[in-house]
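Deliverable D2.4 — example input (structure tokens):
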């Protein structure tokens, strides 16, 4: 088992590779790649779809309005940013925030897989349809599966509505808040 410093070193190397990546055409239009960030010893990893405008500008995940909401939601689960690792399926912003294409997902998958393998979280929270369909259940419906944990590869995978979806559809907010409260209970029981 790697210690925190060794994990951080590996994650820093992955981040350097991401910043220099030219595996797909998205590198041409990015301002900054967004490798992901957080605690290398995190028990929980959050995976979103792709960087948005503000993330592309700053090179950090979830820094816009959806990021502010995520910070509040983390509190409901008894977590803070310093407790978790946050990444995305794609490491570069797609034009006009369109859905990631299959070739783009494939180009980034090695980086995300390496991050997951390095961190070895107890739980991975999939924020929205794209992470759900990419990592857990192709064709899966986030409205049907949100808040329903599933075991895979020795980890717990928890589909959740994406914070941006809750900002655009107010009816998702109570469900997302409830799912985050349930996440706290799930984590507490796994960490006992």
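Example output (designed residues):
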């Amino acid at each position: 088992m790697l210690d925190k410093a060794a994990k951080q070193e590996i994650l820093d190397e992955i981040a350097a590779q991401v910043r220099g990546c030219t595996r797909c055409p998205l590198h041409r239009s990015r301002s900054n790649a967004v490798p992901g960030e957080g605690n290398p010893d995190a028990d929980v990893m959050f995976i979103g779809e792709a960087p948005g405008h503000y993330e592309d500008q700053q090179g950090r995940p979830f820094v816009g309005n959806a990021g502010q909401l995520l910070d509040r939601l983390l509190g409901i689960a008894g977590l803070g940013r310093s407790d978790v690792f946050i990444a995305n399926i794609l490491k570069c912003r797609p034009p006009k925030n369109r859905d990631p294409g299959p070739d783009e997902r494939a180009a980034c998958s090695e980086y995300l897989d390496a991050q997951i393998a390095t961190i070895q979280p107890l739980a991975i929270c999939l924020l929205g349809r794209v992470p759900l369909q990419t990592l857990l259940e192709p064709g899966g419906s986030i409205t049907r599966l949100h808040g329903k944990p599933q075991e895979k590869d020795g980890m717990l995978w928890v589909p959740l509505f994406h914070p941006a979806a809750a900002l655009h559809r107010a009816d998702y907010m109570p469900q997302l808040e409830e799912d985050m409260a349930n996440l706290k209970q799930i984590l507490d029981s796994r960490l006992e």
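Strands lie at 37-38, 44-48, 84-88, 123-127, 150-152, 155-160.
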